[in-house]
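During the no-cost extension, the postdoctoral fellow (Dr. R.K.) reprocessed legacy sequence entries with the updated structure-token encoder. One reprocessed record is reproduced below for audit purposes.
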Amino acid sequence: MKCINCGTGNNLKDRTANYGKCSKCGHAFVFEPTSMGTTKLTDPMFAKVISDISVNNTLFFTPKQMFYLLDSRFRKKAFVNSGFGCTYIFFNVWITGFFGGIGTIFVAAFGLNTIYAPIMANLIYQIATIRYLVKNTNSPKLSNAGRKDSAKLLIFVGGFILVAGIFISASVLSSFPLFVIVVLLGMFSIYKGFVLQNQTTIAQEFIIGESACQDWLNRWQGVNGNIQKLLPAPQNLNNQTTSINPDVTAYSFDRLIVCDSADIAQFLIANNFHFENNCAILSVTGYPESIFQTTMDMLRRNPELKVYVLHNCTPRGLGLINRLRTSSNWFQNSNFTIIDIGITPRQAIGAKKNIFIETSPQSASEASQLPSEIRNNLSPDELQWLQAGNFVNLESFRPQQLIQIIQRGIANTLNLESDSGLLIASSSDIYIYSTQSFG
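Re-encoded structure tokens follow.
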């Protein structure tokens, strides 16, 4: 393992002899992969994750965003399709020869044709391979990309079975029963591959635990100092208000982004999203509290205000629009345009890119208790998806990706008279739109 301080490679013997420190510069190693079980982590790997998520130390990020990225790195190692073809061919030959050879001894003992022993060994191997790949296409431990790779390999295996099996059964052995078996097995594998490669809405499970990730962060910062772009938990300072120049309060933003969590609001503000996109940013919980009321007073003075709603794809997140529309603290009895840029179940179900879908009994319970004003705006497929306990967290998107998605969502709805947005409700002169996709 290379030292992140001086770049010197240290093997296990070096690290042990120097009590977990670099043999050249004496810098302490945070992780010892040989004692970490299945989730092996090295200092260079952790440093790269920090660099990647912060885009070379240019973007702030939340601890949960780093947790999702770390989990995805381990997830990629859970199934590696590179070299599968060579491994598959090798075991075709080895299993057929080795177990087929052993099988001939038993087959001969019963006076049967010994040629069928290696054939049976190979067929069992093909069935086991297909079963393994089918299981992977439905595995919550793999990413959508990993599951899709497994489906593509099912097609590859099916094609191999058809080509090799038909040749051997028809030309070499002239066995019609074997011909039928290999055709059915090959076609089944190809069929399952085509059917399963478009699955994108399977809920996923974490490879690592969030508490383990927090422990790694604490250990890293204990050795290497604070991570500059890692955001702390957002804090509302109840006894502290910010004095704003009266000249500034006379001005109002044309756009407001309302987040369903203070974490996302803090993330956007820390990365200067409000300055670069000329919009105010608030959370429905009142963050940042020190300027919340002043900002709302400024916003209500602008009759052309557009309100962009950003939320997790959860039953609670979907209730955010209704809360803004009916709460006296927000826009009750107002005629502002509200635009839901996501995440909605429709966006999650129709996503073409890899979205981390989670599931929990609590989310399923909350979905079953959704009020009618929210349920009426959801399709049967969306309701079914939610009631299965599925949800998507905004922090599962990497910082740069999330910022770009929000920017595109705003840009695509600047002209609402076009088909860029979908009118989903109108009440008390409030027009509510929803974007078609998230990203």
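Confidence is low (pLDDT under 50) at residues 245-250, 417-428. The two ends are 38 Å apart (CA to CA). The remaining legacy entries will be reprocessed before the final report is submitted.
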